[in-house]
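FYI - complex with zinc ion, inputs then prediction.
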Amino acid sequence: MGSEKEYEQLLDNIYSSLPKKAETTERFEMPQFSYFTEGNKTIIKNFRAVAEKIRREPAFLSKYLSKELAVPAEQQGERLVLQRKLSGGILNKKLEEFINKYVICKQCNRPDTHIEEAGNRLQMLVCESCGASAPIR
Ligand SMILES: [Zn+2]
């Protein structure tokens, strides 16, 4: 059964000779919260890092999570402390919803966007890649 190893070697050679994926077609990698529970609290360890990665104000993201989950939230340095034990993937599900709503351009699916106030409490998501702008609902 020595051929199995040779076969893998062959595959390795094939893959390594393929050209690297072009930068422009690269899909946006969803950031994930890394968190743990402590007593009745849930602590997101990389809260500030995630906010920086998606280029949104930590306070804005914190307010969203707090409202969506109906849990008081408090920033403590790099972390966000939520006053309830949250299990399963709910936190990352909410993060994904936030990113889809407030970060990803609906035209080109890239995350290079910012939010502009358009008056009357209307916010626009403006894309720096393709120039599209769309109201946030
Ligand atoms: Zn765009």
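The pocket of zinc ion is lined by residues 105, 107-108, 110, 127, 129-130, 132 (CB under 6 Å). The chain is about 35% helix and 20% strand.
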